[in-house]
Each structure stands twice: as C-alpha cells, then as structure tokens.
C-alpha cells in the first residue's frame, strides 16, 4: 500500500515560484496498476519523484507499507529503492561505461549477488526484452528503443514491489511500446508488482486498472479505467 497525505511541493521563490503539487492525498493498493495522466507541467513527474523519495516534499507524508518515506534519510531511501523499487525513465539513466548486461545487473550486484550469477540473470532479463544477443554492447552502441529496453530489464531484474515509470514508451514505436507494456503487465501478474506509470499515451493508460488525471498540481479525476 502506498499512502500519501497532503503532499505539496513548490519550486523556486518570488515571481519564479511554481506550486507543482497542491495537497495531494490518495492511496494505491499493493498490486494495482495505475496511470497518471494530465497536461504538460501539471505535476506528474514531481509526484512520482516525491513518492519514490527521489525528491523531498515541502509538506505532507508518504507511507509505503509501514515505512514513512518522509522520515528517512538519504541512505535509508537508497536502500529502500534498491530493495523494493524499480525505475524506468524516458531518458534511460544507463551508465555509459557499463555494458548492457552490467547495467541490467547493477541492482542485484548491489544487493550482493556475485558477478557470474548476476550476469546469467541479466542475460535472462535481456532475453525477456529481446536483447540477449546485445548483452555485451555499451549504451552508445544501441538505439534509443533498445536502451529503453535495457532500462526495463534493469527495472524488472530484482522483481520489485513497486515499479515507477515516467513516460516509459515515449521514444518507442507502437509495436515496441506494446511489448514493453506487456512486460510490465507480466511483472504485475507474476510478482504482484504495483505499477505506477506517468504517460501521455491514452492506449497505455487504458491498459492500467486505474487512471489518475492531474491538472495544475491537483488530482481532478481518479477512477477505474472503463473497459
Ligand atoms: N527542478 C525544478 N525547478 C523549478 N521548477 C520545476 C522543477 N521541476 C518541475 N518544475 C515545475 O513544476 C511544474 C510541474 O512539473 P512536472 O515535471 O512535475 O510536470 P509534468 O506533469 O511531469 O510535465 P511533463 O508532462 O511536461 O513532463 C512545472 O511547472 C515545472 O516547470
């Protein structure tokens, strides 16, 4: 269960002040699949960053299960992210000097798995996203869509409890995007991973159980996706 209460965030000061989030309160149950939609600048990415503890809120609380995110220090947040969360960002966030498999294996190596075993698991995850034969390549030797698939493999390798995705299919063609969303859905159905996906794509939003629509830092609609 993810629970947030009175979440607010303002960027800048004086004339340049932007109230990115205004008193957001809601709950997301374990195993739900949720899309967050809304016009550019309405606060979607900020909300995701606050929930994942990437950015600090000004006011409010976030609970993930029994853990109070707003009370944790940076080390505790890093540990929580490593153990419980997966991330997919539009800009991949891959490490350029590491090969595809090494990027994918990072979360499990950080958790203490030895390199040989981690490599095997990473190649398996790359197989799931159709890239096993490119395991030795560096990010600069892969296309945008392929790098996004590497990022997805890295996000799913640790079977996270929660997967946060920010426009995960923005750079992909429709076929590849469908495939990626299918993988995320598989993660949800096999491991009960909660999916929270920021997207502009109404087809992806329609595939989630629940759609949250934001406008100017507030939630203006929250409901089950009509089938
Ligand atoms: N680091 C920052 N410094 C100043 N303003 C920021 C910062 N990050 C976000 N903002 C502002 O906060 C508001 C919400 O931004 P956010 O990125 O959350 O929107 P979004 O809904 O994800 O937009 P998009 O769909 O374009 O990615 C915007 O007005 C943005 O300009």
UniProtKB/TrEMBL annotation:
GO molecular function: ATP binding; ATP hydrolysis activity; transmembrane transporter activity
Keyword Phosphoprotein recorded: no
CDD domains with a match to the protein in the record: ABC_MJ0796_LolCDE_FtsE (cd03255)
Top-level lineage group: Bacteria
InterPro entries noted in UniProt: AAA+_ATPase, ABC_transporter-like_ATP-bd, ABC_transpr_LolD-like, MacB-like_ATP-bd, P-loop_NTPase
Pfam families named among the record's database cross-references: ABC_tran
SUPFAM superfamilies, alphabetized: P-loop containing nucleoside triphosphate hydrolases
SMART domains on file: AAA
GO cellular component, one term: membrane protein complex
Domain ABC transporter: 2-227
UniProt KW keywords: ATP-binding, Nucleotide-binding, Transport
UniProt-recorded name of the protein: ABC transporter ATP-binding protein
Organism: Paenibacillus baekrokdamisoli
């Amino acid at each position: 269960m993810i629970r947030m209460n009175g979440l607010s965030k303002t960027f800048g000061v004086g004339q340049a002040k932007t109230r990115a989030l205004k008193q957001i309160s809601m709950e997301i149950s374990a195993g739900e699949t949720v899309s967050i939609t809304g016009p550019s600048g309405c606060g979607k990415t900020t909300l995701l960053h606050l929930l994942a503890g990437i950015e600090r809120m000004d006011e409010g609380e976030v609970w993930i299960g029994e853990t109070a995110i707003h009370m944790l220090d940076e080390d505790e947040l890093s540990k929580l992210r490593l153990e419980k969360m997966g991330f997919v960002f539009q800009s991949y966030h891959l490490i350029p000097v590491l090969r595809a498999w090494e990027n994918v294996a990072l979360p499990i190596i950080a958790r203490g798995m030895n390199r040989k075993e981690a490599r095997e698991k990473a190649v398996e995850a790359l197989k799931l996203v159709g890239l096993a034969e490119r395991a030795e390549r560096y990010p600069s030797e892969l296309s945008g869509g392929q790098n996004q698939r590497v990022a997805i493999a890295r996000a799913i390798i640790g079977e996270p409890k929660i997967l946060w995705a920010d426009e995960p299919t923005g750079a992909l063609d429709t076929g590849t995007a469908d495939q990626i969303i299918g993988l995320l859905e598989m993660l949800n159905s096999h491991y009960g991973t909660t999916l929270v996906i920021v997207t502009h794509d109404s087809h992806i939003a329609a595939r989630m159980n629940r759609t949250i629509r934001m406008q100017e830092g507030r939630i203006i609609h929250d409901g089950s996706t009509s089938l």
